[in-house]
Amino acid sequence: MKRFPKKMLIATLYAGTAFVIFGMRVGFADTESTSETKEAAIVYSETNDSTSSDSQTSHSNTGETSEDSIDSTSETTSSSNSSETDSTTVDSSTTESEEKSPDNASDSVYDISSGLDPTYRSRSDLKVSLSRSARSVSSVPYISAGDPSTPKQDFIDISSHNGEITVEQFKLIKSYGVSAVVVKLTEATSYRNPLAASQIANAKAAGLIVHAYHYSWFTTEAQAKAEADYFVSYARQLNLPTSALMVNDIEEPNIKKKADHTQLSKVFENRLKELGYTNTHHYIGVSWVTDNAIDPVALGKNKVWIAQYPYEPQNQKYTDYSAWQWTYNVTFPGINGTFDMNSDYNKYFISQGQGGAISDGRYATVVKDNYTIWQNFSWTKKADSKAYLGQTLQIKVRYEHINGSTYYSLYDNQGNWVGYINSGGVKVADGPQGNWQSKQTYVKFKEPGTIYRDFTFTKTAPITSDMVKNTYKVTGTYHHFDGTYYDSVYDFSGKWIGYIASTKLTVQTNQGPALTDGRYVTITSGNYSIWQNFSWKVKASSKDYLNKTVLAKYRYEHLNGSIYYSLYDQSGTWLGYMNANGTKTANNAGGAAISSGKYVTVTSKNYSIWQNFSWKEKNKSSNFYGQTLQVKVYYNHFNGSTYSSLYDNKGTWLGYINANGTKEANNAAGINQSYHKKITFTQNFPLWQNFSWKQKSTVTNAMKGQTFEARYVYRHFNGSNYLSIYDNKGTWLGYVNESATKVVK
Prior knowledge:
13% of the residues lie in helices and 36% in strands. The chain contains eleven helices and 52 strands. It has an eight-stranded mixed β-barrel. Strands 17, 18, 19, 20, 21, 22, 23 and 24 form an eight-stranded antiparallel sheet that branches. A seven-stranded antiparallel sheet has the order 34-33-37-36-35-32-38, with no helix packed on it. The longest helix has 17 residues.
């Protein structure tokens, strides 16, 4: 490996000042050159955003003066020759500088004393650069491509300053283990790399993976979005696929700490995603981190490409980041100039954003039918997940993609590669049996044998001859990686029997077997069909039996999720099959309580009032004859009779009475009962028009001396009796409280 000696310091001074290398006098700077340097420095200080040309220095220079060249006035001396020449002229004695060498520095991960970062380089294509003969620069060594003593040489990044690179030259670069190239496309909103098209085309032709970067100047959200738009516009023009990494190169010294670079970088990233480029990275010099100019943790270190150039690049550093740019001085034989070299830790650059393959080996069942299975990470479609829905496949490797998704590389049981699928389209299983999948069917065992109790197939249970006679229910199935379907079998008490291959079962009808029931149900809805069979031929309508109590001799737990009762009336006549949702289960033959709230008058003295429907007597109707009571609920008994549940005006429950012993009233007054007596008024009470208490008139003093006819009496629920009064001409006068009258004999 050809390198400059450690910590070589080159001091370029103004006119009349000597060059000093480790205290050695080398020569005097040219006065004319120094004059040019001063002028350039003035232009730089006054111009931060001038229109660019392609002559400004960027990531690397091809055939131009190196930042580490000793003789800044010699444009014909190559960088590598300068390195070799200078290494022979430097005094090797120990100096004060060497005593403070990086070898003696702290091992901190951000120890920038052991090297440089992009702050020491002028990489913008917009601003006028300082002449390198006018500033002090420390050097990093030249590195030969393929040198095994250096950090990994995974990918390069280039700009227009690398010039035209032919396909053959890119092939040479690839032969040294380089897998990818990141090409500068744009800067701010006014510069486009004029060589980007050929650089991209030739790199692809050489078999390299191509990504892109944008040199950022934004200090507002609007600028961040505008620069993202500008970047994407050129990327689309150059036909860069959306799988390419799009890098935000945030390093410009003139904007450092002049904005919230972390937040604005997120705005830039999100705008790229909105425009279809979901694979993003951020390029940051280590000094931006140490100076707290930007927060790599907030951006996500797995999306940060960090730059720092050790004087002695040997070991891998910054491995908690996605990638590390560790030098800008790699040379390839036969290719002019030097190149930036990078180590790719997550393999996002040397892939299409998917990162490195992570060994897996688990099994997964395809559970979504609307996912694409990909041929590659350039998003070429291979198949639809619908074609594999329900299958269990093996995940040999997985990829943690930069877009935030995980992709599984799936294989079938023959070892055939199925493709890449987003993890959201599958469900990882505990083993090769796959995941439980819903399945509802009734089955019988074909023959005695063995059923499995786990998927190691070591725990078993017998299938007896008696079990073969019975019907069982399958509630789910497993599509094993070996292709076999294993059904999970239960009996009708809900007891789990085990797993068995579905080929060893005989499927039964969907309604399942007739299960003995024997309960009484009351039909509570008139909107159901009563079926002749389970081919859904209509036999009757539930409205024909509304509120009737019938016997459910059997029930069927249909696979459609409904329960159907096989119904019979009190004469034993089969009525048909009815969905249980249209009925209400009763505790006994009395049926279900049906809400009422109406009033009845007891009209018979010969009925028992029952305590329950086991026919325990509670009272007799004769004790309530003529009284008006409230029916809060009633029961349509299976025997065909209706029983009213009676309450008095104090809310006391009196019992159940056959409705035939009562007569329903229109209101709380009860029914009109024959009275037909002559009366006189004793008090000036109201005469009511109705029992909503609309007053018709009032008993007057003049009426008190007259005789009237009370034809009917209403024994009101409130406890009072009301007489229906007529005068001697047969004119109805209204209802009056009986207490305001006196019977005339």
